[in-house]
Amino acid sequence: MADKQTYYITTPIYYPSGKLHIGNSYTTIACDVLARYKRLQDFDVFFLTGTDEHGLKIEQKAQDLNMTPKEYVDMMAEAIQKLWQELEITNDKFIRTTDEYHEKAIQKIFQKLLDKGDIYLGSYKGWYSVSDEEYFTESQLAEVYRDEQGNMIGGKAPSGHEVQLVEEESYFFKMSKYADRLVEYYNEHPDFIIPQSRKNEMLNNFIKPGLEDLAITRTSFDWGVKVPNDPKHVVYVWIDALCNYITALGYGSKDQELFNKYWPADVHMVGKEIVRFHTIYWPIILMALDLPLPKHIIGHGWLVMRDGKMSKSKGNVVYPEMLTKRYGLDALRYYLMRAVPFGNDGIFTPEDFVQKINYDLANDLGNLLNRTVAMINKYRGGVIPTLTSNVTAFDLDLEKSAKEAITEYETNMDQAHFALALEALWKFVSRSNKYIDETEPWVLAKDEAKAEELDSVLAHLAASLRLIAILLQPVMTHAPKEIFTQLGLPLDNMAIKDVDYFALPENTTVVKKGTPIFPRLDIEAEVEYIKSKMTKNEKQKGRKAMQEAIEAQAEFDPEKTELKSTKKEIKFDKFDKVEQRVALIKDVSRVKGADKLLKFRLDAGDEGERQILSGIAQWYPEPEKLIGKKVIAVTNLQPRKMRGEISQGMLLSAEFGDTVQLITVPDEIPAGSLVG
């Protein structure tokens, strides 16, 4: 079998000077969408993200919090990785620039460039922004401060941060040596920088005026990679951070297998504010190292607010955890991929966010699923009819729309045009809803002579939903599986590669009662809720909570905790023998002759449904209210008979006081998911 085509995609590595908001999350989710899409196209994907942990700002931040820089970045890196887990980011590696292998590789790279003559020792005097970790010329500043004699005494960077005059000895990189070669590369590879407008910015604003040699070390702080044989210098961000894309693959180490396999990168995705570093400095560094350049660098727009860029000082920041907790992960991921048009900024408003959930997800997609499942149950006893083409007058047009949707979706996804890909898919969602109105299955059901037409309609709707679910997978991590589950379709064939509208399995039975995958929201109430979370008050509370957490972390010693347990201590290997899965309650009833027992019928990811008996009847006088909830089941217990009924596992519950309650899990977690 031929090796799969490789695909290497990276996010920028994030500077952990504060909590990441939805604007930061956009880049990582966008890369995750592309990585998932390529895997579903049968590519061998390597997806990298990480943190840029050196620099003066980190040193100062840690000092303000009475922490060492390493303690601070450890805490922040852990928080960022936890966030990526919550957003279900499928990165293959998380690099930290404080990782020992990275620091050693950077020293080797620096020495190689020094020996080659591309780096030389000099001195630098210029205006420096600590917050931006960047030098600026006077003309680049947004605002310049002068004394009474007109002499420059300070200013503000384009970001709004203050600059200060810095003079120090520094090693410089000969950028000018490679300027012509870089322009030649741009011309030979017109899709190297995406979108094209970013390339024009680089040429007109930075290269044509004259590319100056770049200061790449600092002596005014210690928190960084030490220059070999000159340790008073630390390697500055340009080499330290940018080279993460190759050091993560093993470049500069004894094992370069991953580097040889995946480099050059297929896509570096970055925000537009750091395009210059990735399209000028980074390619030149690679040229100097005699390495191939990445194939594409995508500089996306920002997700901004109506009053401009998200800013903690403005109190208009939205954090992803707040949205996912209330609205689910799928809603956030969908919104972000629709909200930022390719190459331009997207504007976040609470109104737009809530409306997209209601109109796109609840009305368009949710209703299509609900109506389809309900009609298959009502008219065909829950069994999806065999899919046949060209039975009704509207079948061929729907099939044509499906084919167009696949083509348009794949074309745009391949180009990272996420909003356009989703727009193409939603055109098909709307077309499928229109198909219901055109065919009027409720009318066909009244006429036995129209049975074949009714079968065709129901099968086409199921086929449409199957296709929609498959194409939604890169963006939504839960809804596609839920659609498949409600349609009774197996989850083992959801690849996007060679997806076929007509590959609808035969004799499939839908669930007896569908459940809304996106409940409608009260727009006014939810808008007010989001706005309340964006206030400065909330921001200040968050800062206070973060400070308290830091202080608590500094004082926390887990070994001093008095651990309590009602049972004998066990080793992990014993716990690991227990299999726990998320189970959807399909039905529940009392067991005849047993007042304490409830009989549960569950979807726990088995080939069929399993039955579990639980002695919790007294705490659930109306057990039918449990139908549709997701619980945790121990699934590898040996089955046993109780009151003549088989029990194939155990449901987990919590005891508090005189009450026993089943432990439930969020709706978005698919049935059958492993726990632990």
From TrEMBL:
<keyword id="KW-0694">RNA-binding</keyword>
<dbReference type="InterPro" id="IPR041872">
    <property type="entry name" value="Anticodon_Met"/>
</dbReference>
<keyword id="KW-0547">Nucleotide-binding</keyword>
<dbReference type="InterPro" id="IPR014729">
    <property type="entry name" value="Rossmann-like_a/b/a_fold"/>
</dbReference>
<comment type="subunit">
    <text>Homodimer.</text>
</comment>
<keyword id="KW-0436">Ligase</keyword>
<keyword id="KW-0648">Protein biosynthesis</keyword>
<keyword id="KW-0963">Cytoplasm</keyword>
<dbReference type="Pfam" id="PF09334">
    <property type="entry name" value="tRNA-synt_1g"/>
</dbReference>
<dbReference type="Pfam" id="PF01588">
    <property type="entry name" value="tRNA_bind"/>
</dbReference>
<dbReference type="InterPro" id="IPR013155">
    <property type="entry name" value="M/V/L/I-tRNA-synth_anticd-bd"/>
</dbReference>
<dbReference type="GO" id="GO:0000049">
    <property type="term" value="F:tRNA binding"/>
</dbReference>
<keyword id="KW-0030">Aminoacyl-tRNA synthetase</keyword>
<dbReference type="InterPro" id="IPR002547">
    <property type="entry name" value="tRNA-bd_dom"/>
</dbReference>
<dbReference type="InterPro" id="IPR001412">
    <property type="entry name" value="aa-tRNA-synth_I_CS"/>
</dbReference>
<keyword id="KW-0067">ATP-binding</keyword>
<feature type="domain" description="TRNA-binding">
    <location>
        <begin position="574"/>
        <end position="676"/>
    </location>
</feature>
<keyword id="KW-0820">tRNA-binding</keyword>
<protein>
    <recommendedName>
        <fullName>Methionine--tRNA ligase</fullName>
        <ecNumber>6.1.1.10</ecNumber>
    </recommendedName>
</protein>
<dbReference type="InterPro" id="IPR033911">
    <property type="entry name" value="MetRS_core"/>
</dbReference>
<dbReference type="InterPro" id="IPR012340">
    <property type="entry name" value="NA-bd_OB-fold"/>
</dbReference>
<comment type="similarity">
    <text>Belongs to the class-I aminoacyl-tRNA synthetase family. MetG type 2B subfamily.</text>
</comment>
<dbReference type="GO" id="GO:0006431">
    <property type="term" value="P:methionyl-tRNA aminoacylation"/>
</dbReference>
<dbReference type="GO" id="GO:0005737">
    <property type="term" value="C:cytoplasm"/>
</dbReference>
<dbReference type="InterPro" id="IPR023457">
    <property type="entry name" value="Met-tRNA_synth_2"/>
</dbReference>
<dbReference type="InterPro" id="IPR015413">
    <property type="entry name" value="Methionyl/Leucyl_tRNA_Synth"/>
</dbReference>
<dbReference type="InterPro" id="IPR004495">
    <property type="entry name" value="Met-tRNA-synth_bsu_C"/>
</dbReference>
<dbReference type="InterPro" id="IPR009080">
    <property type="entry name" value="tRNAsynth_Ia_anticodon-bd"/>
</dbReference>
<dbReference type="GO" id="GO:0005524">
    <property type="term" value="F:ATP binding"/>
</dbReference>
<dbReference type="InterPro" id="IPR014758">
    <property type="entry name" value="Met-tRNA_synth"/>
</dbReference>
<comment type="function">
    <text>Is required not only for elongation of protein synthesis but also for the initiation of all mRNA translation through initiator tRNA(fMet) aminoacylation.</text>
</comment>
<feature type="short sequence motif" description="'KMSKS' region">
    <location>
        <begin position="309"/>
        <end position="313"/>
    </location>
</feature>
<feature type="short sequence motif" description="'HIGH' region">
    <location>
        <begin position="14"/>
        <end position="24"/>
    </location>
</feature>
<dbReference type="GO" id="GO:0004825">
    <property type="term" value="F:methionine-tRNA ligase activity"/>
</dbReference>
<dbReference type="Pfam" id="PF08264">
    <property type="entry name" value="Anticodon_1"/>
</dbReference>
